[in-house]
Design a protein that fits this description.
Four copies of one chain form a homotetramer. The first copy, chain A, is globular and about 45 Å long. Chain A is α/β, with parallel strands linked by helices and 184 residues long. In chain A, helix 1 crosses helix 5. In chain A, helix 3 links the parallel strand 1 and strand 2. Chain A contains six helices and five strands. The first copy, chain A, has a single domain, classed as 3-Layer(aba) Sandwich (Rossmann fold), CATH 3.40.50. Chains in contact: A-B, A-C, A-D, B-C, B-D, C-D. The interface between A and B is large, with 56 and 57 residues.
Chain lengths: 184, 184, 184, 184
């Protein structure tokens, strides 16, 4: 039963992520490297995937913050906001994206719905073409529960981008640990 | 470049997770279904994978808490503590496991090192056989940075267990959303 | 210097909190006791004061959640949302309050500005009459930095309500610890 | 009833905090100003008081992190760890303090028990002389529930130190907002 389940999950992730436009991920990688500070926003398990991304970006020497962090600084026109939202219609991320644009920051959207309300505030979209909360009836693309496939694909996509950043910065794996928390 | 990276990640996860003993995951699933309350502990990105697990367990009708949550209740002899720790030597999880045993709770360890200090407090281990912080020099099993492979495999393993729970409980996908936060 | 500072803070809190309408706090206490579940929302240090409240409410046997918690359940018409916002204009709390009303939940606002956008969604307001982010120039009421006075007054007000709840429920102090997390 | 409760709380805080040795708070203030990075650790509502402190320290231009933050950096011999623990016996803070000393960092303890296990790792103690979890029977000093008095006193003590830092740095209140998160 376990084998059946992980095989299903990994095969669904592979289908979803191989349908992503690689050029969009290259552009996001460039934006991440160029930004003075990176801010991340999402809700629920989508936020959790971005939190894993946030931690790794910091290990790679990129200053990243989840919105609401205790030491979140002010966003500026040199910053990048990354919004994770399958539907692109989640209220809090929409609000935050609107405010980020007001301060002149760039906004990247990782989501599924290319024609969402977020589009108005978005400089760059990386599209993971899977079902979203808005079209849950459409179960053709995933046999998993709820929005698991988007959350999983987001996690793996972000880790792929981290490996791309690591290459571009010619980082030596052993030296990465110097940025890593060492208190536990 | 993106394709090379996600292919690497997915293939490493597949190797790691297919080396897990399926029977151990069945036993963990049974323990999760039997416990009155489930507690989860880990640090860093391992904790983040468990937080995703925690959210989904609650959607599936299982009362789960990450240690430190604002509404964390008291652990009892009917509870299960799930410890995520590759090395099984992380200080905070070790401490928490020791305290959990003092209260008579069951302790499950998802990790890599089968002969760790955690073993003393562990009723059940699910072993993901990849390198840990303690043997980072041994890079034969992963070309990724840091402990990414353990964190990713843990995430996918936990989501596989969620699908197993969903089957065992005969849950209807559409009805799951009734347990889901609806405020955003 | 330390004495000067804590004397200033305590005297400002006393002024602020003694200007609160006691009847409003009684009504909030009743609502908290009546609700099947309590949800709390705020941002920044206001959220932190509510998190302290959330933890203590759970100790007192009241099911409380901060919006975004890993085990946040669905809000219903029997639930209470408590919004902390000095100005009553903070975007995320406004959104959450609007959604809470849609589900038929009661909404209580603890804030300073009695005529804010939140008013539309509010069943009950507890007003702490101090300056807010919107009228920071008006420094007559506090010599402290930023919105410290609101955050401190909110913290003390919430702890006062907890003592009121403890009395009303005739709770025995020693027995409270049974609801308290015991894993650390 | 509300008046009786807030009067009790404010008078207990005043008693507790006026018994603190002002010189210890001056020394802690100096350490905070001198450190390249500040780390904060505690559990439960004690941690929540430190999180409020963490946020404000960052506003004041001091780099502060709660242990476990997504962007927590490595601690070094130029860093300061602030431990909040009434009893000085809480397992996780003890562990973290031990590790911090291993890396050569300074450790400050804000607590009640002057002769705790933490003493071995502590360079500086600020003592708030109230009861702790270890001597709960001794209820002479507080009529509040659980450890509320320590948590409240810690919150107010930390905000007093922030005002001292603001004075020492000659910070202009209006300019502080430039360090403040602006995304919500």
């Amino acid at each position: 039963m376990f084998e059946e389940k992980y095989t299903l999950i990994l095969s669904e992730i592979k289908n979803a992520i191989s349908a992503v436009d690689a050029q969009q991920t290259e552009m996001l990688t460039e934006r991440l490297l160029k930004a003075d500070k990176v801010f991340l926003i999402g809700v629920g398990r989508v936020l959790i995937s971005l939190q894993a991304f946030c931690k790794r970006l910091n290990h790679l020497g990129i200053q990243a913050f989840c919105v609401g962090d205790f030491n979140e600084p002010a966003i500026t026109e040199n910053s990048l906001l990354v919004v994770g939202s399958g539907s692109g219609e989640t209220a809090i991320p929409l609000n935050i994206a609107r405010i980020a644009k007001k301060y002149g920051a760039a906004v990247a959207h990782i989501g599924s719905n290319a024609n969402s309300s977020l589009k108005e505030y978005t400089d760059l979209m990386v599209r993971i073409p899977v079902r979203t909360k808005l079209n849950l009836e459409d179960e053709t693309d995933s046999r998993q529960i709820m929005s698991s496939l988007f959350e999983q694909s987001l996690y793996i996509l972000c880790d792929s981008i981290c490996l791309m950043i690591s290459d571009k910065k010619n980082l030596v794996i052993k030296e990465l640990w110097q940025h890593h928390a060492n208190l536990e």
